[in-house]
Amino acid sequence: MMLKTKALHTVFLLLVSSVSWAQMQSFALQDVKLTGGPFKNAQDVDFRYILALDPDKLLAPYRIDAGLPLKAPRYGNWESVGLDGHIGGHYLSALAMMYAATGQPELKKRLDYMVAELARCQTQNGNGYVGGIPQGKVFWERIHKGDIDGSNFGLNNTWVPLYNIHKLFAGLRDAYQYAGNAQAKQVLIGLGDWFIDLIKPLSDEQIQQVLRTEHGGINETFADLYILTNEKKYLETAQRISHRALLNPLLEKQDKLTGLHANTQIPKVIGFEKIATLTGDAGWSDAAQFFWQTVTQTRSVAFGGNSVREHFNPPTDFRAVLKSNQGPETCNSYNMLRLSKALFLDKADPGYLDFYERTLYNHILSSQHPEKGGFVYFTPIRPNHYRVYSQPETSMWCCVGSGLENHTKYGELIYSHAPNGLFVNLFIPSVLRWSEKGMQVTQTTDFPYKNETELTLKLTKPQAVPLHIRYPKWAGRFEVLVNGKPQPVVGNPSGYVALDRTWKTGDKITVRFATSTHLEYLPDGSNWAAFVDGPIVLAAKTSTEDLKGLFADDSRMGHEAKGRLYPIDKAYALVGDAGTYDARLKPVGKLRFRLDSLMLQPFYEIHDARYQLYFQTLTPAAFEEQKTRLKQQEAEALAREAKTVDKVNCGEQQPEVDHQYKGEKSDSGFDEDGRFWRNTRSFISYQLQNKNRLGSQLQISLLDTYKPDRVSILVNEQPADILSSEGKEIVIRGDGSEVMNVRIEAKTGAPTPRFHQIRLVRE
Fold first, then answer.
1. What whole-number distance in Å separates Cα of residue 165 and Cα of residue 83?
2. How far apart are CA 741 and CA 734, in angstroms?
3. How far apart are the C-alpha atoms of 583 and 572, rounded to whole Å?
4. What is the spatial distance between Cα 80 and Cα 78, in angstroms, rounded to a whole number?
5. CA torsion angle 59 412 419 442 (round to 10)
6. Do β-strands 439-445 and 452-459 pair in parallel, antiparallel, or remain unpaired?
7. CA angle (121, 125, 126) in 5-degree steps
8. Per-residue pLDDT tens over the stretch 24-67
9. Closest alpha carbon to 733 in 721, 716, 718, 751
10. Per-position b or e across 677-711, b if 16+ CB within 10 A of its CB
């Protein structure tokens, strides 16, 4: 309960622990305008990137599928190799949210044009369907008839079709909700009704079989259709297309995430949470909270990201994350922020904001080049590696789609409101116009470079509106002043301080606090740690050499930083007694710290460079032993990579897509050591690139013993010339071709051994 007083200018400050979920609401993006700082700059840079894209090129896949003539050729990259049309859905969302945030008329013009063109494609198709999926009509007809052969990312040998079409569902929803485009609502309803008819003949078991393949948050968008129409069939469909293989363990509070493709799972959970709010199902909401808690507390690195090579690593072992050039994926954080926002509005627990703020500053803000534009896919934590940035004409990755959206909506949770007042959640320079209350709040701040923010009020008339200021978990010496007069602060961090007062125009609230710098260790309990000041993760630029592919070309894996891997044993380490590590930092300016020869600064400021974000902490004796061991391990690993011309990790999504995976009656998974695999009762095949014809051998590793009587291997349709096959390793002579198609067939119809990796090497 909030304490009140009859005295007009008396102020009470207390911590609010909870507010009814049904009452906490975010403000519309139209109500909050950014006024400066790095977030406003990121919004402006994203605006230019959005305008650099051609709507007719993005619409081309939809026109192809509808049989309409092209107005422009489609984009290349992922938009021409199976995921055709997915950026178009993201683009609708980005246009709608950026228009809401800025009011720029060109954005509305483009949005209305795209929706009208999609409506035309829908009319041409004649059944409510509209999509850019290659051979979409044939594909969906097979599904309608129950002809289903799916894996984690391939459904009937089509690349994540439900994930693809989910982007259009979400884009149409956003076009209506954020920009008021009524035609988008009608196209969305038509598309939803088509989908309900599509799956009507399927049993629940068949639906779950379809859902094995990555499908984004399609359950969430059907929950949204229910909100828009109040028709129960949409909510029933949302429940029916919720993936039980993920949901059931979460309902039992079981963490079964290790080895799963991370971004496949997060959108499903957003759907579980939304369905829970609509049905009152506490179990589903508890499952979403358990997932969030598990990912944020045991599976995330300091900047909020998670995963290695797109998959959840074991929470007890982050070694693969430290070694890989494919670190946490930006799409994951995009979706974790959406889940955090949903849970915050549901539970009104500011603890969700601690993660939201950390990830917003350190992963999302850092994932766009602040001057040249371009979005980051992987953010490695490997010492002395770097990131790659997309370009409008060459890059059509999933993290481009979510990246277009990320920087449009920074205003979504700076403030929120409830019947018991206004909540200030983030310290970002902005103006809030709360027309319902006749109130304007101007927030002026240089945070995180200065630990202070000021709120200036403007009202149509004096009124009592309780004002709640977030007291962050990381804040020390928290002070609040009203019109220059200090107020007593009661309570602890990770809550709200409430000001209950009748406000008038010109009133000013000043908030001051302190931050401290500390080491934050990886969740696995290892001796790798990052420096964090308040919510800001610090890192050091280490080199600008060999930044191969810094701005991506249109190659299939252009989003991966393929420059030389610097040996981990050469990385800077913190050597000494544990209590001395923090003391080594010497402040030299605004969020600048000298660490011996290194300069630490906010990670989001570091671009066009290699960096070190995590540091190993060692005693002097452990340092010498570790250095020798790591040197040998690194030398062996780097030598093997130097001999590798191409490789595919069987059972991992991106490597398989990159190598033109095809298969039937196939299963995939991972073993207790976190190694991925794939087997088949029919066939599987991959296409490896033999650049400059350097590869002379194919080295195939299995998790089971190779038995020639059960497996047939072909290279470019010819029986493989097997040089050796000892235990779980097969060596095959290469045929000298520039492209090697490796096909593995089950001879008897029984499952083959589990294949782990196929590596093309030069010997």
1. 10
2. 11
3. 16
4. 5
5. -130
6. antiparallel
7. 115
8. 999 999 999 999 999 999 999 999 999 999 999 999 999 999 99
9. 721
10. bbbbeebbbbbbebeeeebebbbbbbbeebeeeeb
CA dihedral 279, 285, 291, 294 (to 10 degrees): 180
The model's pTM: 0.89
Q: Please check whether residue 60 is in contact with residue 67, taking contact to mean a CB–CB distance below 8 angstroms.
A: no
Rounded Cα distance between 724 and 737, Å, is: 21
- Beta carbons within 8 Å of 639's beta carbon, 6+ residues apart: none
Q: In terms of domains, do 548 and 505 share one?
A: no
- Which neighbouring-strand residues pair with 761? 644, 697
3-state SS string over 35-65?
A: CCHHHHHHHHHHHHHHHHCCHHHHHHHHHHH
Q: Rounded to an integer, what distance in angstroms lies between the CA atom of residue 425 and that of residue 420?
A: 15
Q: What is the pLDDT of residue 633?
A: 74
Q: Looking at the DSSP assignment, which residues form a beta bridge with residue 590?
A: none
How far apart are alpha carbons 687 and 729 in whole angstroms? 19
Considering 599, 615, 635, which residue would you say is the last residue of a domain? 635
Three-class DSSP category at 478: strand
Structural domain containing residue 52: 28-133+143-241
Task: Point out which residues pair with 114 in neighbouring strands.
Answer: none
Question: Does residue 715 sit in the same domain as residue 589?
Answer: no
Give dist(CA 115, CA 185) in Å, integer: 10
**Are 476 and 543 found together in one domain?**
no
Look at residue 19 in the predicted model and tell me its pLDDT.
40
- 425 DSSP assignment: -
Residue that is written with structure tokens 């020639």 in the block: 708
515-567 pLDDT, tens digit per residue, is 999 999 999 999 999 999 999 999 999 999 999 999 999 988 899 999 999 99
CATH number assigned to the domain comprising residue 503: 2.60.40.1180
Residue 56: inside a domain: yes
| Residue 147: burial class (beta carbons within 10 Å; 0-12, 13-18, 19+) | exposed
Evaluate whether 639 touches 596 at the Cβ level (below 8 Å): no
CATH code at position 649: 2.60.120.260
User: Tokens in use for 340?
Assistant: 């955090």
Q: What are the phi and psi torsion angles at 159 (to 5°)?
A: -75, 115
Q: Which tens digit of pLDDT belongs to each residue from 224-265?
A: 999 999 999 999 999 999 999 999 999 999 999 999 999 999
β-bridge pairing 467-471 and 421-424: parallel
Residue 699, pLDDT above cutoff 90:
yes
Please, what is the average pLDDT of the chain? 93
Residues in the chain: 763
**pLDDT digits 0-9 by tens, 389-445:** 999 999 999 999 999 999 999 999 999 999 889 999 999 999 999 999 999 999 999
Same domain, 207 and 59: yes
Question: Per the structure, how many domains does the chain have?
Answer: 4
Q: In this predicted structure, what is the pLDDT of residue 416?
A: 98
H runs (alpha helix) in 578-720: 620-643, 653-658
How far apart are alpha carbons 576 and 211 in whole angstroms? 51
Asked whether residue 246 is assigned to any structural domain, the reply reads no
Task: Answer yes or no: is 307 within a domain.
Answer: no
The C-alpha atoms of residue 363 and residue 378 are separated, in whole angstroms, by 10
Q: Is residue 594 located within the same domain as residue 738?
A: no
Which of 485, 514, 543 marks a domain boundary?
Answer: 514
Residue 117's Cα: distance from chain center in Å? 29
* 8 Å CB contact between 698 and 758: yes
Beta strand pairing call for 467-471 and 517-521: unpaired
Residue 744 domain-assigned (yes or no): yes
Q: 726 vs 385, 706, 715, 722, CA distance in Å?
A: 36, 8, 19, 11
Cα–Cα distance for residue pair 454/443, rounded to 1 Å: 6
| Cβ-based neighbour number of residue 39 at 10 Å | 22
Pair (538, 569) in one structural domain? yes
Q: Are residues 510 and 530 in the same domain?
A: no
